[in-house]
Amino acid sequence: MTFTDQLRKENDDIFQMIFNHPFVEGIGRGDIDKKAIEHYIKADFEYLNAFMKIYGIALAKSTNRTDIAYFHDKINFILNDEIHPHHNFCDYIGVGYEELQGHPLPPTADHYIKHMMYHAQLGSLGEIVGALLPCPWTYLEIGKELIQTYRPTEEHPFYPWISFYADSRVEKTTNDMRNLLDQYATHISPEEKLRIKDAFRKSCQLELKFWEMAYTLEEWPSQEKVNFT
Ligand SMILES: Cc1ncc(C[n+]2csc(CCO)c2C)c(N)n1
């Protein structure tokens, strides 16, 4: 069993919770509360900006041209391709993409970005990749699960979203990242492996919480919004 096979197996509980989350099931059924989609896009636009910056840090820590080219290519993919699923959601709710950009991050998205940034700034290349890998991996499996369960056709409102993530390009991103990490893990200490496992699991948990954040319209507490009595 490879190192990333082991990571996937140890985190199957969280993967299953993601597949069963009501927001994710709503994508499959083709009905999600419009406010929840709006909340998701606002946070995800900023999440993708942070993700590109972390790819940039990973690029800076790369030791060969194959890895440099990989991270360069992935920044391009987010800039030019990841906007398509966002547009699908924006069209569904009838709101312009520009209106959903530049908003402050709710607590979970803020936590997720800072978690990745922590490993990017203080960790090894392996730790960064461990923190980044659940992002393409959970979305790839969500896409595949939704295709299998709901068999969406082109009339499905989220057909572009689902087919984008079930596609071979996201599969390739996931597999390339897995190969990089598996290769890396052949020559590291048990302590570093534990740090990578911790980064990976927390990112899986934060992926789950990101769906929950959108579904519950999570906000920071403030005097006006919270009544504890
Ligand atoms: C919270 C959150 N997690 C994952 C993705 C999906 N995603 C973001 S970047 C990327 C490609 C990696 O190169 C993928 C698959 C998302 N949009 N939002």
From TrEMBL:
<comment type="function">
    <text>Catalyzes an amino-pyrimidine hydrolysis reaction at the C5' of the pyrimidine moiety of thiamine compounds, a reaction that is part of a thiamine salvage pathway.</text>
</comment>
<protein>
    <recommendedName>
        <fullName>Aminopyrimidine aminohydrolase</fullName>
        <ecNumber>3.5.99.2</ecNumber>
    </recommendedName>
</protein>
<dbReference type="GO" id="GO:0050334">
    <property type="term" value="F:thiaminase activity"/>
</dbReference>
<dbReference type="Pfam" id="PF03070">
    <property type="entry name" value="TENA_THI-4"/>
</dbReference>
<keyword id="KW-0378">Hydrolase</keyword>
<dbReference type="GO" id="GO:0005829">
    <property type="term" value="C:cytosol"/>
</dbReference>
<dbReference type="InterPro" id="IPR027574">
    <property type="entry name" value="Thiaminase_II"/>
</dbReference>
<dbReference type="InterPro" id="IPR016084">
    <property type="entry name" value="Haem_Oase-like_multi-hlx"/>
</dbReference>
<comment type="pathway">
    <text>Cofactor biosynthesis; thiamine diphosphate biosynthesis.</text>
</comment>
<dbReference type="InterPro" id="IPR050967">
    <property type="entry name" value="Thiamine_Salvage_TenA"/>
</dbReference>
<keyword id="KW-0784">Thiamine biosynthesis</keyword>
<comment type="subunit">
    <text>Homotetramer.</text>
</comment>
<dbReference type="GO" id="GO:0009228">
    <property type="term" value="P:thiamine biosynthetic process"/>
</dbReference>
<dbReference type="InterPro" id="IPR004305">
    <property type="entry name" value="Thiaminase-2/PQQC"/>
</dbReference>
<dbReference type="GO" id="GO:0009229">
    <property type="term" value="P:thiamine diphosphate biosynthetic process"/>
</dbReference>
<comment type="similarity">
    <text>Belongs to the TenA family.</text>
</comment>
<feature type="domain" description="Thiaminase-2/PQQC">
    <location>
        <begin position="12"/>
        <end position="216"/>
    </location>
</feature>
